[in-house]
Amino acid sequence: MANDSENLLKKVISHAKEYGFIFPSSEIYDGLSAVYDYGQNGVELKNNIKEYWWKFMTQLHDNIVGIDAAIFMHPTTWKASGHVDAFNDPMIDNKDSKKRYRADVLVEDAIGKMEEKIEKEIEKAAKRFGDSFDKKMFAETNPRVLEYQKKIDVANERLKSAMSANDMAAMKQLIVDLEINDPISGTKNWTDVRQFNLMFSTEMGSVADDANKIYLRPETAQGIFVNFLNVQKTGRMKIPFGIAQIGKAFRNEIVARQFIFRMREFEQMEMQYFVKPGTEMEAYDFWKAKRLKWHQALGLGTENYRYHDHLNLAHYANAACDIQFNFPMGFKELEGIHSRTDFDLKSHEKFSGKKLQYFDSESNTNYVPFVVETSVGLDRMFLSILSIAYKEEKISGADGEEGGERVVLSIPPALAPYKMAVLPLVKKDGLPEKAEEVMNLLKHDFRCYYEDKDTIGRRYRRMDAIGTPYCITIDHQTLQDNTVTIRERDTMKQERISILSVKEKIQKLVSITELLKKI
Ligand code: GAP
């Protein structure tokens, strides 16, 4: 991670804590690794993201309905889904630093470093040759670049084959051959590579034997699969149709870092779209395009999203891609879109002995539907918004603002924790009473923040820091002509308008419905 991006992530983490967005879990006991609590502002932003997703998926698609399945599921669910046998990450320890790593990530990082070396060679050559530089030709003929590329290809191939054959000895050998050092101790004193199952387990009931072992769900999707027929029948759903769900998922991640990007307890927003076999690619392309549009409508910059198509598909998938976001750590997965064939439903049929089939009244046939899944991490959405929204700015002192510096969170107004602040200029002369009147007029439609302490400049700064898009200031003129000043967060521009037109002016600008209309 480059220094600037590392700094940005650090600043976002400390800002999120200072302003009540995210706290380390059980902080008074020094926290719990990769577990976080959302504070008073964080929970509002999170709820708004959920509403934006839920309304888009269920309200704007009349063939999609939602459910809320339990976190605990029958243990056989996880046998059928493949999680008991295969939801593993390869782990390795360094004997000197005593640090634990994901072996595949160590290899990927080493490959990343070789790729950086190629980029550097290309940069150097581009400077040397100037306008006449032919990047493609250089990359295809320069001996050093070719050597790095060959090493990369071999490493990728060995990684792929070790992972798919579940061959942990080959994985260890690859780490040895690539001469990978522990970033902390600097040594190559590694243990063997072992598979580590990421599911958390606990016991249900009072007898702690194996039969009572149950898991905390590692994805919400299985709650949808096992309810497929319940929803289809009771909702009289016709294929194609979708089932959406927002809920907690738990994974005992080996390397949990990068704040809320990789957590041990997190939330997913998932939708399974059930289609007729043979039509799944059409649905896959449809959802791939739709989900990107949903992200882009937030206005965080279209350049910050890209697709990453999976070349190595899981055995049950016939197409898969990620929507990656330009996080402070670089482009990383934000959402996954997977065409999962009939793998899950067929497997649940086999393990439960119950039919999970759809009766197609047009063709008079029964079949197991194919599934296209969209799965986005709520916490990763939160981080994507916060890291783009965070800005440090110098203020000239114009427009009635105090000069100096400010930190502003330019959160999309529809998702901001508070839509406006109501601020009496001074705490006397009847201004607080007038401000209360204004609050009463607006609080049914908008989440409003009231504050009468401190200078108005400091109060603006605090509202900027939590991303409140509008500040309504009540001053002495308000008492005479019922007008207020309204200040916009990003431009800091102020204008004087009648109290009665505040609602009309702001409503569309902070509305999730209006945001949804852009998609
Ligand atoms: N049902 C499919 C599934 O769970 P996944 O790619 O493992 O697929 C989907 O997860 C999304 O869940 C990811 O794109 C990511 O946004 C989020 N996610 C996965 N693991 C996470 C973790 N440890 N912490 C935070 N978010 C996570």
Summarize this, please?
The chain is an alpha+beta fold and 519 residues long.
Q: Order of strands across the biggest sheet? A: 3-9-10-16-13-12-11
Radius of gyration: 27 Å
Low-confidence stretches: none
The proportion of strand residues reads 15-25%
- SS-based structural class? alpha+beta
> Could you give a short account of the major beta sheet?
7 strands, mixed
Overall pLDDT, averaged?
A: 94
Classify the helix fraction into a percent range: 25-40%
In DSSP terms (H or I, runs of 4 or more residues), the helix count works out at: 18
- Which outline best applies? globular
Calculate the terminal CA-CA distance, rounded to whole Å: 33 Å
Number of E-state strands: 23
Bound molecules: glycyl-adenosine-5'-phosphate
Could you explain how this protein is built, in words?
This protein is of the alpha+beta class and 519 residues long. Helix content is 39%, strand content 24%. It is built from 18 helices and 23 strands. It has a seven-stranded mixed β-sheet with strand order 3-9-10-16-13-12-11. The protein has a five-stranded mixed β-sheet with strand order 20-19-21-22-23, sandwiched between helices. The chain has a three-stranded antiparallel β-sheet with strand order 5-4-6. Helix 5 (103-129) packs parallel to helix 8. The longest helix is centred in the first third of the chain and has 27 residues, at 103-129. It is globular. The two termini are 33 Å apart. The relative contact order is 0.11. The model has no long low-confidence stretch (mean pLDDT 94). Glycyl-adenosine-5'-phosphate binds next to strand 10, strand 13, strand 16 and helix 13.
